[in-house]
Amino acid sequence: MKILxxxxxxxxxxTIGDFFAGQNYICELAGNFMxxxxxxxxxxxxxxxxxxxxxxxxxLNLMKTIKEYNxxxxxxxxxxxxxLNDKINGLDLGADDYITKPFELAELNSRVKAVxxxxxxxxxxxxxxxxxxxxxxSKEVAVCGQNVVFTKKEYDLLLFxxxxxxxxxxxxxxxxxxxxxxxxxxxNFDFVYTHxxxxxxxxxxxxxxxxxxxxxxxxxxxxxx
Length: 225
What we know:
The structure is a single chain. The chain is α/β, with parallel strands linked by helices and 225 residues long. The chain has two domains: 2-120, 3-Layer(aba) Sandwich (Rossmann fold); 126-222, Arc Repressor Mutant, subunit A (Orthogonal Bundle), CATH 1.10.10.10. The chain is 42% helix and 24% strand. It contains eight helices and 14 strands. The strands form four sheets. Strands 2-1-3-6-7 form a five-stranded parallel β-sheet, with helices on both faces. Strands 8-9-10-11 form a four-stranded antiparallel β-sheet, with helices on one face. Helix 2 packs parallel to helix 3 and helix 6 (152-163) packs across helix 8 (190-205). It is elongated, with a radius of gyration of 18 Å. The mean pLDDT is 87.
């Protein structure tokens, strides 16, 4: 799961980022409107934590950017303003939830999980695909009823495939999802092949089927068709 955190208070931005990184989320940080707008124009996210008051713009205007780029991310608005109008405006613009400063990180985490379940998994924390079962709360994977240990990257890759089942994912999209901004430093995408092969191997060793189909010159598709 990939989160964009938009917050102008540097200490709070770092604190939230460190917390969710510790929860095994891929985190990207933006301390102002311009940086957030640039990231939204390039990258995809599962969740966006959006502060309203930014030094160079109104965070609510980023909701328009999210719509413009047709982003599918869930949005939780963060604001120091305990204003009913701000809450209504944010929700009317498409936000999924609203939280007011100060807040506990545990509460924010619960809200993030709820939005992810609601938007991507129909409210469920247990995701099933035939013989594969993923617990998105504990981040555990079972294949044919047998627990299988995946690295963080392998887990993220498997979940990314299942969430996007029957869709062709390019090597670039997979790499960007797993390695975020650092992907710009990569010389090639050999590491994508390595992680895909490990996911395939672990599923098959547990008695599962190989659902990762190579779409030549295009990418990969997770499907049983």
